[in-house]
Write a structure and sequence with these properties.
239 residues, mainly alpha, Four Helix Bundle (Hemerythrin (Met), subunit A), 9 helices, 2 strands, globular, phospholipid biosynthesis
């Protein structure tokens, strides 16, 4: 049996992803959602570069794959659950039985469960080499964290039922069979990448105009574009 190498540069980057995710969970409990957003973006950067560095160094490791999935389930599974748990915990539940008020915030952890299922599915699904099936966990996390950071006051004016409904929709999107495009480019040409270019340009405009909440709007826009492309494909309409 070959020696198992734990301490490689890609594994270090993955571990930094995990560290940022752990820190984000703590800050979520404090309600510091702007800090959580910064840490999630840092996690996403480390998650991007660990694979890039591994390919550049020609490192193929089962340990790296397993570590990456575990780190992602914290940074992009547990973190959004902690954010929603924190938001749901701030509501006044005096109008319902005490036990229900205690239990309702824990519905947030459905996101962590379905994120784990989505990551496990991704690891063995050969269809997801150039695109995605279901909402990627980093996108789902950015959606929730940006909503909390940019719309906290508005969210707290809503009934908690709406947040719980959002948890259900989010969990479904993670494991559904909806094809979603990747931002990876094989070429720089417009014809093959026009959907990606249009999405990136419009998303940057949205974020520039609306600030942090624009990140959440961009993720919703990404979901809508993917849904429209799927409907067109089903109807055999070229795009």
């Amino acid at each position: 049996m070959d020696k198992i190498r734990l301490f490689t540069l890609p594994n270090l980057l993955t571990s930094l992803n995990l560290l940022c995710g752990c820190m984000a969970c703590i800050w979520a409990l404090y309600g510091s959602y702007e800090t959580v957003l910064v840490l999630v973006i840092a996690s996403a950067v480390f998650d991007f570069f660990d694979g890039l560095v591994a390919r550049a160094m020609h490192i193929k490791s089962r340990i790296g794959l397993e570590l990456d999935s575990l780190a992602d389930d914290i940074s992009f599974g547990l973190v959004p659950s902690m954010v929603v748990f924190s938001l749901l915990g701030s509501y006044d539940y005096s109008c319902i039985p005490e036990w229900a008020g205690i239990m309702l915030p824990y519905t947030a952890f459905a996101i962590a469960i379905f994120s784990a299922l989505r990551l496990a599915k991704f690891n063995i699904d050969e269809r997801q080499t150039t695109s995605f099936i279901g909402l990627p966990t980093p996108a789902n996390t950015l959606l929730w964290v940006a909503l909390a950071a940019g719309c906290e006051a508005w969210l707290k004016m809503l009934s908690p039922v709406w947040l719980i409904a959002g948890v259900a929709i989010s969990s479904f999107l993670l494991v559904c069979e909806l094809p979603m495009f990747s931002l990876k480019l094989k070429t720089m040409g417009w014809h093959d990448n026009r959907v990606r270019y249009i999405f990136v340009i419009t998303s940057l405009i949205i974020i520039a105009l609306t600030g942090v909440k624009g990140i959440a709007l961009a993720i919703i826009w990404y979901i809508l574009i993917s849904l429209l492309l799927f409907i067109k494909q089903r109807n055999h309409v070229s795009y």
